[in-house]
């Protein structure tokens, strides 16, 4: 049997975790799918799937082979698109990820404009405050804030933000403006996204770092709630600069200890292969151009 055919059958069965479901997905008979998997395992001399009367699971070796097979099939699809000239017009499904508030504020406008421009496109937007494994979760394009680990992903820097402290002018007029991080121990602290009784905030200034342990008076599970608390003149909170930028701009809040907030880079990252698919290339170009121009990110 053709090796690519065997790979496609294995990917279908491995992802569906069922010979019958894999057969339906490929429009093949279950016996033909069973023969294809048996042929592939015989060629490799490795058991790829564990079978029971109810379940089909990939083995440890099978999982590694499944990851490689997915990559190979994706690159073949990209090569086919390039050969057919499909790169000229984006079409199909695109999955994008970003942090929740960042996605809402900056990525969603790009997504909406992209969909209006290319009517044959569909986008799934995964806005999550956790690190998404783009390969395992099938994500095409992502936005990352902070230094990037070594990766095979292609990364394009589009701006920077800072982890800043903010309070209302009314609160600071009443309680004073902290001059160094240690002064925060004399202030009311509002901590976002934590339930720990004590928080540790790290600072950097002139090449030196410092950590201040603080006991919050108010802890919230969301950034929005922390912002609302300090807008009501209750204490000082710490967030990324873009999260409070609109309130800094209109004067409701002001930053303190700005010299102790080093920049954090923002990158657009993607899993582009040898052949740049039109949907990824065009979305990345639009995102990069839009984010680089945004005043809250530069």
The CATH topology of the largest domain is D-Maltodextrin-Binding Protein, domain 2
**Number of helical regions:** 9
Average residue pLDDT: 88
Distance between the termini: 55 Å
Task: Give a summary of the structure in a few sentences.
The protein is of the alpha/beta class and 298 residues long. It has helices spanning 3-16, 19-26, 30-44, 60-84, 100-117, 169-175, 223-231, 241-249, 278-293, and strands at 49-51, 56-58, 92-98, 121-127, 141-145, 154-167, 189-192, 199-205, 208-214, 218-220, 236-240, 254-256, 263-270.
Structure characteristics:
single chain, 298 residues, alpha/beta, Arc Repressor Mutant, subunit A, D-Maltodextrin-Binding Protein, domain 2, 3 domains, two-stranded antiparallel sheet, 13 strands, elongated
Structure description:
By secondary structure, this protein is α/β, with parallel strands linked by helices. It has helices at 3-16, 19-26, 30-44, 60-84, 100-117, 169-175, 223-231, 241-249, 278-293, and strands spanning 49-51, 56-58, 92-98, 121-127, 141-145, 154-167, 189-192, 199-205, 208-214, 218-220, 236-240, 254-256, 263-270. The protein folds into 3 domains: 3-84, Arc Repressor Mutant, subunit A (Orthogonal Bundle); 89-157 and 265-297, D-Maltodextrin-Binding Protein, domain 2 (3-Layer(aba) Sandwich), CATH 3.40.190.10; 162-263, D-Maltodextrin-Binding Protein, domain 2 (3-Layer(aba) Sandwich). Helix 5 (100-117) links the parallel strand 3 (92-98) and strand 4. Helix 1 (3-16) packs across helix 2 and helix 1 (3-16) packs across helix 3 (30-44). The longest helix has 25 residues, at 60-84. The radius of gyration is 25 Å and the shape is elongated.
């Amino acid at each position: 049997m053709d090796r690519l055919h065997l790979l496609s059958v294995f990917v279908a069965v491995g992802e569906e975790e069922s010979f019958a479901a894999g057969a339906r997905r490929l429009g093949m008979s279950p016996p033909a799918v069973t023969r294809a998997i048996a042929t592939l395992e015989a060629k490799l001399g490795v058991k790829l799937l564990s079978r029971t009367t109810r379940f089909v699971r990939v083995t440890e070796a099978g999982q590694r082979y499944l990851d490689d097979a997915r990559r190979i099939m994706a690159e073949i699809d990209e090569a086919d698109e390039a050969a057919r000239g499909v790169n000229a017009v984006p079409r199909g499904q695109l999955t994008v990820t970003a942090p929740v508030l960042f996605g809402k504020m900056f990525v969603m406008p790009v997504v909406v404009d992209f969909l209006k421009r290319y009517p044959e496109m569909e986008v799934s937007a995964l806005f999550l405050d956790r690190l998404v494994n783009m390969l395992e979760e099938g994500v095409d394009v992502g936005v990352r804030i902070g230094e990037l680990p070594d990766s095979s992903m292609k990364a394009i820097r589009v701006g920077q933000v800072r982890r800043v402290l903010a309070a209302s002018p009314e609160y600071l007029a009443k309680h004073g403006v902290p001059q160094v991080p240690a002064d925060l121990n004399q202030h009311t602290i509002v901590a976002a996204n934590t339930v720990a009784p004590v928080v540790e905030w790290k600072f950097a200034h002139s090449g030196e770092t410092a950590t201040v342990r603080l006991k919050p008076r108010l802890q919230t599970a969301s950034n929005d709630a922390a912002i609302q608390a300090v807008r009501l003149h209750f204490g000082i909170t710490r967030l990324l600069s873009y999260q409070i930028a609109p309130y800094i701009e209109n004067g409701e809040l002001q930053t303190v200890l700005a010299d102790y907030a080093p920049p954090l880079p923002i990158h657009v990252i993607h899993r582009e292969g040898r052949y740049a698919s039109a949907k990824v290339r065009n979305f990345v170009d639009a995102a990069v151009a839009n984010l680089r121009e945004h005043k809250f990110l530069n």
